[in-house]
Design brief:
Blueprint: E1 3-8, H1 27-41, E2 45-53, E3 66-67, E4 79-80, H2 82-86, E5 91-92, H3 98-111, E6 116-117, H4 134-147, E7 152-156, H5 184-191, E8 195-200, H6 203-217, E9 225-228, H7 239-251, E10 255-257
Parallel strand pairs: 1-2, 1-8, 2-7, 8-9, 9-10
Antiparallel strand pairs: 3-5, 4-6
Length: 264
């Protein structure tokens, strides 16, 4: 299906703008460039996929889930390790969730990908922070009107028991929740792209996790992936995560380009 665009979490709460819950330095300019790309490519885009991080306040990666021995929640950006949970340094605020919380941090540790980071409440369903960055939203709507096609919006993160950085699957998939597992129909559509342009926020987390999982699902299509380097930035303090992701995936065949490249 010619060129497709995978735009990951282009939401207000990730923009470096007033009132954003989890701003990523450079994200607003990234997304303005992504919007310009959509307008420029127009009918050369056979499909656009937009992932939307979607949470409620009660989430295993939000402060309200946890407490210390004195009843205090962890501060945002606290890293909670499996050893700390086993030692009782951090406890699930709801005792009914304690056993599941222990199992979760153990599964995270076993995966070797991320430790549990407590984030500020962000991209809450129905909130202004959940909305798509205005320039991107206008470009998506104009593309839909001009091409008579719908944008494929993909929500992730509504299961409060697991993190969902990747749009392909949760960090620890829930056997009872199909939304935390790969969507085979969506993967089949992405596999049809001659070129899959990739952009969005944040490079260090949701972009990295999504593309890694996509590469695992479509290993023979990695050479069709093209990361737009001027349309994605890392969470501050996690720059090394973004650099490691780019090095890993380019070694497997992913290409790099900027949004101004005329031959896209």
């Amino acid at each position: 299906m010619r060129t497709q665009l995978l735009l990951i979490d282009p939401q207000y709460d990730f923009c470096d703008m007033p009132g954003a819950a989890l701003p990523v330095a450079g994200a607003n300019a990234d997304l303005q460039r992504a919007a310009q790309l959509i307008a420029r490519l127009g009918d050369r885009l056979g499909a656009i996929h937009v992932t939307l991080d979607t949470h409620q306040p009660l989430d295993i990666a939000h402060p309200v889930w946890w407490r210390d021995a004195a009843g205090n929640p962890p501060a945002p950006f606290t890293v909670i390790t499996a050893n700390e949970v086993h030692a009782g340094i951090w406890l699930a605020r709801d005792p009914a969730q304690q056993a599941a919380s222990v199992a979760y941090v153990d599964a995270l540790a076993a995966s070797g990908k991320y430790q549990l980071v407590i984030w500020p409440e962000h991209c809450l369903a129905g909130s202004p922070g959940h909305t798509v960055q205005p320039d991107v939203l206008a470009a998506l709507h104009n593309w839909s009107r001009s091409q008579l096609k719908t944008v494929n919006f993909v929500s992730k993160g509504m299961n409060p028991h697991t993190e969902h950085y990747s749009a392909i699957q949760a960090e620890v998939p829930d056997p009872h929740d199909p939304t935390t597992h790969p969507d085979t129909a969506w993967l089949a559509q992405l596999a049809q792209a001659d070129t899959l342009l990739i952009a969005g926020e944040a490079l260090s987390h949701c972009v990295a996790s999504t593309v890694r999982d996509l590469a695992a699902q479509l290993p023979d299509r990695i050479d069709r992936f093209m990361l737009l380097t001027d349309c994605s930035s890392p969470v501050p303090g996690f720059e090394a995560f973004g650099e490691a992701f780019v090095a890993e995936l380019t070694s497997k065949g992913m290409k790099l380009a900027t949004s101004s490249r005329q031959d896209l």
